[in-house]
Design goal:
The complex is a heterodimer of chains A (628) and B (127).
Chain A (H helix, E strand, L loop, with lengths): L4 H9 L2 H14 L3 E6 L5 E4 L1 H7 L3 H4 L10 H16 L4 E10 L2 E13 L5 E10 L1 H30 L3 E6 L4 E4 L1 H11 L9 H4 L5 H15 L4 E7 L7 E11 L5 E10 L4 H9 L3 E6 L4 E4 L1 H7 L12 H4 L2 E2 L8 H4 L11 E8 L5 E13 L2 E11 L1 H37 L6 H32 L7 E5 H10 L2 H6 L3 E5 L6 E5 H17 L6 E9 L2 E7 L21 H5 L8 H11 L3 E7 L3 E9 L6
Parallel strand pairs in A: 18-20
Antiparallel strand pairs in A: 1-2, 1-5, 3-4, 4-5, 6-7, 6-10, 8-9, 9-10, 11-12, 11-16, 13-14, 14-15, 15-16, 17-19, 20-21, 21-23, 22-23
Helix pairs in contact in A: 14-15, 15-20, 16-18, 18-20
Chain B lengths: L6 E5 L3 H13 L3 E5 L2 H11 L3 E4 L8 H8 L10 E5 L5 H8 L4 E4 L5 H12 L3
Parallel strand pairs in B: 1-2, 1-3, 3-4, 4-5
The chains are: A alpha+beta (628), B alpha/beta (127).
Chain lengths: 628, 127
């Protein structure tokens, strides 16, 4: 290559002495170690600054010394041998890696050696240039280590994805499939009948699915490809019986610069949790699962029964708000935020309320409704609504409150009488009207007896309701027992001029029945018959065995029960209007108690009555073994 | 005896209560009209225009609330001073009436007859 005019001009400018200083300066400042050895004894003649730094010795310590002064003999022998070889040949010796011990530890050098010959061609000096490649070596070692690790990680990830039972698929920016695992491939084959392949689109893949499903899926991938990470409930399948339900999480995939390169999803088939499904099916509570759009995904048989719908296909896929309406106590529809509990900031926090569910036929029932948002990674994936019909509890509560209110009324009335007559008695204490005083005290006594009756009846009711009264069957002589019971009423009946007649269809009657039950029932019926009879009449008691039952009949010729009151006759504290006018005392609990007792043994009670002519009560008690 | 006697109407189906209360009211100088249900009570009220009406709630044929309701339809009955005297508590329609101040509400077992007499005298402005 020809020298340029400029170079020629420059070299001519350098004088011999200038030239020496110039070269010295270059050598001195070269970043690599430069050394010159005498060809004869291989002692150091020259060292540059980089050499001093590398070896950690001062130039004055190095010059005139040989390798044996600095390195172990073995190493020094090696270096000297190499030096001789260089001097003998006329070629550059390239040692890519040699390790030397310096004052600051081992260094790795890339060294080149060359012989410098005189005009006769004999070697006079040995020039060496060493580059410190320790750092570079370390770096490439580290790079190697890292890349080995990365390939392990990548391998692990690949295995993980491939072996996962979750359905995993990656798509590129154009929503074309890039990578998928076996679980995904098998599921696609099973549901859509499509063979997976790289580059396939979702339109092709879901060919068999309804169009709205395909559009729905495309919209979801679009969201992920726009950078949103989210989870949803989703169902797939060609008809309602082969629907599969999934929780699917979509992730955008970004490179280091944050650009979206594609997206992936991980889908979990929740139909596989068959046990959970079986539990849902058999739950005594209604369960409705909605997806992230508020559409019904799953509804259990109990929920269908409660809202009066035959098949879940009538509701699946429909908007929950419109198809299963829920109102508050004022009849106002529960708004979406409340219904889906979506404003709830905490994950999986349930909210329970009493709402009114509207059945298919428009009727309503009260229910405790518990609504739990299903959130995956803080995204609303759907809602689980669980509801229980509480109409029975509410009716019971209402009856209980009414009962308490009426019982307190019934107790307060005789207490008021006792109180006021006592007041009247005190006022009259100074008078000598003994007849009046006698009347007052008499009223007080009657009132207190009445209180006692009511308290006794209430206790009896609670004992029956708690199952505390034992109704064990014994072989009873019905004729003898009835005689005893009737005898107990002899005073009362004589006062009213009433005659109690009994008829057992024969001289004797025995059967297996509870003595307690028989006594309570007959006592109540006779007591009522006497109270509501007209004076100087008859009360007829007939007791017979009929198949497996003991049948009792108690007939009076009294005021009868007005037609409008007949259906209320067995309720607590009810007394017919005409009965009250008769001014007979009564707790209003007798028939209620009788009915409660009979219910314990699956017995029955009914009556026939004509106002102003009389009433007949009929009782049937099962007596066959095992019937109670 | 005395034409200035204040006339009271007591509507009560429990005979012993009606008997003793009327007796005590009479002994305090009132003229007492007695009714055993709302139907009789309403008829007496509209006929005799008593100065004050005491009415029970649970009664056969016509209850106390129904009687008051019908009474308020009448131009005189509209403003007739009335108090419910009962042992029944916790009824919703009653609390509504109380809000409208159409009547007072006395629980029998909480009131002695002496207190009731005092209350009526105060209402009627008699000593």
């Amino acid at each position: 290559m020809a020298q340029t005019d400029k170079e020629i001009e420059m070299s001519q400018k350098i004088t011999t002495s200038d030239e020496k200083a110039f070269l010295e300066s270059i050598i001195e400042n070269i970043p690599d170690m430069v050394f010159v050895k005498d060809a004869k004894d291989l002692k150091f003649l020259k060292f540059n600054k980089a050499g001093e730094d590398l070896l950690g010795y001062k130039r004055s310590d190095l010059l005139g010394k040989s390798d044996y002064d600095f390195f172990p003999k073995k190493e020094a022998d090696f270096f000297i041998e190499k030096d001789r070889a260089v001097l003998d040949s006329n070629e550059i010796l390239d040692i890519p890696e040699e390790i030397i011990k310096t004052t600051h530890g081992e260094r790795i050098l890339h060294t080149k050696k060359i012989s410098i010959r005189n005009s006769e061609g004999k070697p006079e000096y040995l020039l060496g240039i060493s580059e410190d490649i320790t750092l570079r070596k370390d770096l490439s070692k580290k790079i190697k280590e890292v890349s080995e690790k990365q390939s392990v990680t990548l391998g692990f990830l690949q295995d993980f994805i491939e072996n996962s039972t979750d359905r995993i698929v990656f798509v590129d920016k154009d929503s074309k499939v890039v990578v998928y695992n076996t679980a995904y491939r098998d599921e696609v084959k099973k549901i859509f009948g499509t063979e997976m392949s790289t580059g396939i689109t979702f339109n092709e893949l879901m060919g068999a699915a309804p169009k709205d499903q395909i559009d729905g899926v495309s919209a979801l991938w679009k969201r992920a490809l726009e950078g949103e990470k989210f989870s949803i409930f989703q169902k797939f399948g060609s008809d309602q019986y082969t629907y599969n339900y999934y929780v699917i999480t979509f992730y955008p995939l970004k490179n280091k610069e944050g650009q979206i390169m594609g997206a992936m999803h991980v889908g979990q088939n929740i139909n596989e949790h068959k046990q959970d499904k079986a539990i849902l099916e058999s739950l005594g509570e209604g369960v409705i699962v909605t997806d992230h759009l508020g559409k019904i995904m799953m509804i259990n048989p109990k929920a269908l029964e409660l809202i009066g719908v035959n098949k879940d296909s009538e509701l699946i896929g429909k908007q929950l708000l419109e198809s299963v309406k829920v109102l508050d106590s004022k009849g106002v529809m529960i708004p979406a935020e409340t219904r889906f509990n979506s404003t709830n900031s905490t994950n999986r926090a349930s909210v329970s309320n009493i709402y009114f569910y509207v059945r298919k036929d428009g009727s309503k029932f009260p229910a405790v409704s518990t609504i739990t948002p299903v959130k995956v990674d803080n995204n609303l994936a759907g809602t689980v609504e669980i509801f229980r019909d509480i109409s029975k509890e509410q009716a019971f509560e209402k009856t209980k409150n009414e009962f308490l209110s009426l019982v307190s009324h019934e107790l307060r009335t005789p207490l008021t009488i006792a109180n006021w007559y006592a007041e009247a008695y005190f006022k009259s204490i100074d008078s000598i009207d003994l007849a009046k005083q006698k009347e007052y005290v008499g009223e007080i006594r009657k009132a207190l007896e009445h209180v006692n009756e009511i308290v006794g009846a209430i206790l009896q009711i609670s004992q029956i309701e708690l199952g505390k009264i034992k109704l064990e069957k014994t072989n009873l002589d019905i004729v003898a027992l009835t005689g005893e019971i009737v005898h107990g009423f002899i005073l009362e009946s004589q006062q009213s001029g009433l005659l109690i007649k009994t008829d057992f269809g024969g001289p004797s009657l025995r059967c297996l029945v509870s003595k307690n039950l028989f006594t309570i029932v007959l006592n109540n019926l006779i007591s009522n018959a006497i109270k509501y009879s007209k004076s100087n009449g008859e009360i007829n008691i007939k007791i017979n065995l009929e198949k497996d039952s003991l049948v009792m009949e108690v007939k009076d010729h009294g005021c009868g029960i007005p037609e409008i009151d007949q259906e209320k006759i067995f309720t607590k504290l009810f007394r017919a209007e005409n009965a009250k006018e008769l001014k007979v005392s009564g707790t209003g609990l007798g028939l209620y108690i009788t009915k409660l007792f009979l219910e314990q043994v699956k017995g029955e009670i009914w009556f026939s009555s004509i106002e102003n002519e009389g009433t007949t009560f009929y009782v049937k008690i099962p007596i066959s073994p095992g019937s109670s | 005896m005395n034409n200035n006697k204040k006339v009271l109407l007591v509507v009560e189906d429990e005979e012993p209560i009606l008997r003793v209360l009327s007796e005590q009211l009479r002994s305090e100088g009132f003229e007492v009209l007695e009714a055993v249900n709302g139907e009789v009570g309403l008829k007496l009220a509209l006929e005799k225009h008593p100065d004050f009406i005491l009415v029970d709630l649970l009664m056969p044929k016509m209850g106390g609330l129904e009687m008051i309701e019908e009474l308020r339809e009448d131009p005189w009955g509209e403003k007739a001073p009335t108090a419910i005297l009962t042992n029944l508590t916790g009824l919703e329609p009653v609390s509504e009436g109380l809000k409208l101040k159409t009547y007072d509400y006395l629980i029998k077992s909480d009131w002695s007859m002496e207190n009731i007499i005092g209350y009526i005298k105060e209402k009627l402005g008699v000593k």
